[in-house]
Write a structure and sequence with these properties.
Helix content is 27%, strand content 28%. The protein is an alpha+beta fold. It has a five-stranded mixed sheet. A two-stranded antiparallel ribbon has the order 1-2. Strand 4 and strand 5 form a beta hairpin. The longest helix is centred in the C-terminal third of the chain and has 19 residues. The protein starts with a strand and ends with a strand.
Length: 177
């Protein structure tokens, strides 16, 4: 079994720790060696456990192993120059090649990608941190998250086969709306 430890402030979406799932065995908010939901002192960091694809905790059924989730993250805010928005999204895609496609305008953007996580909660938690954690390093606009969709792989493919749902993520890359 391959289990990796990471610290919340040091975990970034796209790193090995987040790709394998981000929740600790105790669930979100668990303190290392402490009770779930126990308060942390100011500045105290929370350790997260990641499980590599195919690995299991003893006694867990196969449905608890990591699986793929299709994520669509929508952000918006005050207008920003299109060239800066495009450059920032390209930088984000360069830093984190797991991003499939980004669409943008001067006041909103949509990012779509696949995330590997043990459950929807873990995939959504990583997605909700993506924009804020990379705002400075990629030069992203100070926009807020206004939408999030996380669906499993089977649902994604059912929607595509039925002719509804998110269009396949092609062309890959950063494109205007």
């Amino acid at each position: 079994m391959c289990v990796k430890e990471a610290v919340v402030s040091g975990v970034r979406p796209g790193t090995a720790a987040s790709r394998g799932g981000t929740a600790s065995r105790g669930g979100t908010g668990a303190r290392p060696g402490g009770a779930r939901g126990a308060p942390r002192a100011a500045g105290e960091e929370r350790a997260l456990t990641s499980v590599a694809a195919g690995d299991r905790f003893r006694g867990e059924e196969p449905e608890h192993t990591p699986r793929l989730w299709h994520v669509t993250l929508s952000v918006s805010g005050t207008r920003a120059p299109l060239t800066e928005v495009r450059r920032a999204l390209e930088q984000l895609a360069h830093d984190h090649p797991f991003l499939l496609t980004s669409r943008y305008a001067d006041d909103h953007a949509e990012i779509r990608y696949w995330e590997e996580a043990r459950d929807l909660h873990d995939a959504a938690a990583v997605a909700l941190r993506l924009w804020g954690e990379h705002r400075q390093t990629a030069g992203l606009p100070p926009w807020e998250i206004v939408g999030l969709e996380v669906i499993d792989r089977a649902t994604y493919h059912q929607r595509i086969a039925a002719g509804y749902g998110p269009a396949p993520a092609t062309p890959v890359g950063v494109h205007p709306f």
